[in-house]
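Q&A log
Question type: sequence-to-structure
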Amino acid sequence: MKKIFFSLSLCFVLILLVFSCVDSGSTNTSAGNYSMEVGEDYPVYGGNKAGNRFSPLDQITKENVSSLEVSWMYNAAEGSEIDESGRGAKEIQCQPIVVDGVLYGTSPELELFALNASTGKEIWKFKPGEDEGRYIVNTNRGVAYWRNEKDRRILYTVGANLYAIDADNGKLISSFGNNGTVDLRKGLLPDEEYDIEALSVNATSPGIIYNNTFILGSAVFETGNSAPGHIRAYDVLTGEMKWIFHTIPRPGEIGYDTWPKDAYKEIGGANSWSGFSLDEKRGVVYLGTGSPSFDFYGGNRKGKNLFGNSVLALDAETGGLKWYYQTIHHDLWDRDLPSPPNLTTIEHNGEMVDVAVQATKDGLIYVLNRDTGESIFPVEERPVPTDGLPGEYPYPTQKYPTKPLPLSHQVFTEDIITDRTPEAHAFVKDIYDQFRTDHKFTPPSVEGTLAFGYSGGAEWGGNAIDPDGILYQNSNNDPWVLQLIDTTTQNKAFNSLSKGNGLYLKNCAACHGQNREGSGTDFPSLKNVSDKLSKEEIVQIIKFGSGRMPAFQQISENDRESIVGYLFDLHAFGRPPVAHSGEIIQGSEVKSESEPVQKKKFGFKQRYVSKVWRKLADQDGYPEIKPPWGTLNAIDLKTGDYLWRVPLGEYTELTKQGIPITGTKNYGGPVVTAGGLIFIAATADERIRAFDKKTGKVVWEYQLPAGGFATPITYKVDGKQYVVIAAGGARGQKPGGNYVAFALKDK
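Response status: OK
Response body:
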């Protein structure tokens, strides 16, 4: 890599960036909201409100990092009854925060806890409990902290609940919402008109705080009964909703004409599930949205579909739109924006420019002017295939950034099929020949397609940017098989099946396979599920969700029991088999007369659903393309050029066979420090590593007790710098539940 020489004045600017610009003015203390600037603390998801995942700490360097050792370990899964088989295992994806020497994080059961950040000793733990049946054990990636002169509180979500917790004692703050809780299903639709109990709404990533305003997104279903993904803001003190931004516009709002008339009355999605960044000096919050529902067929949503798949800049106090930048028009490929925009300042054409940097699931990186939303680098709008399914209206053009080059493959071509062994090549080639692979934007079909960008590229772990304007991003290379089926054909087939089998095929087969075989670690096999879970546990998972699986609350109790009966190869808890009659609408049968519907159900009847949707692998379970399978990348944002790219993760059994390190799938993100290091876990080999940020060379690694599928943090207490990772395991591997802290050996 060439040395870069800066003028004296530019060096002075960059020194200031380390302590100020990186946080985009996070010293705003109006309304009593004290500074949340990264330094010795790590007070915000992403390190600072700009989401840089950069720490100015430099006690740990590439010269002494080899002396890192475990300082403490906290068992966050204690009492969760996880056994050696993985029974009861749930993931920890939490990136904790540290304020004034106290670490706040969440357990596999989404209990909130506070620890002494220097010893790992528990201070308090909050257990959310049932709370009127709305406790959904799902994913949580972090929490938000707020304080004024008299009050310190943690805001975090569990399922459809937003909680306000006293940061000093772990108790609910009764003056917030309904005795400390706000129901996130309320306020999305006219509550008096729609059955909000049937909506699946939760928030996997934390919100962000501007003064006394807490801004929050949501994770929702991706089928026809998806809730709308509107962005909302709440009063930190009272829990009252302050504003709402309609990501599926209403009449008179910008973007309404990019949908059919009144689309907002039945179409959901276009949600921001990955979190936010905030420029407090401008008073602007930045976010990325996902696809409208249904993910893979949009015959009822002709048009660009704003504000799906868009980077948005909103007034943080009012929710007013500043600008938008749509990355995918009329998304048919589930190409959500998977992480918050990263706010930084770079030199461009001789000037310092504030930018928002957005990475995508299909491996692209957009560098946008923070004030206007215009791309810093040229972006081409190119024609794409429009031969969609009957009634579909694929958009005729899509965006192609010219810089930086993609992080991952864009099209599955024959020359990248695995050559690990002749047998593996032949196995994948046979699958390759069965499906269409000709274009990145080939519309989904009943014949099936193989494509990148359903998962992979950038993930929810985010990225890091240092004050030199270097972006550090981990990435996956994952082609997926997608095949649709029309619901008329599907319903005819269901009529000949038992009720449980039909319901399983409708609700579960797209992920877990028609024969319950699963798809690697992403969607586990259910063939021997009775060895791991009881009937009652599976019923609760179907109802409330767990990990990546959303809640299927719209499925009736009888139908849930029928599915579980089928999974156990029984007849619905001893009941005789029932022939399936009538259509299944949105994953469940129409409710019987004994379960009258008093209010309207939001959503629409799908014309097509997923028949197959799974990651492709060879016969031995390894990725189906030539390595690298997972990478860590360094990109100079001033030029858009790569400085280095290295494999991330290792299959040691392949290395022993003489195969160069391949990289592995990786879930979680990096943190970069002024000590010249990048810390990242995330890999399937269950290690945490430190990389030299200049060269990409591994300078330290440690075998974790379980996979660290989260993003590490770093902070300093009593003069000692710590690095902490949540080693929650699972994702098809052994369970965990520990937070592991590292520090330099005492001399």
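Response note: The CA atoms of residues 681 and 688 lie 4 Å apart.
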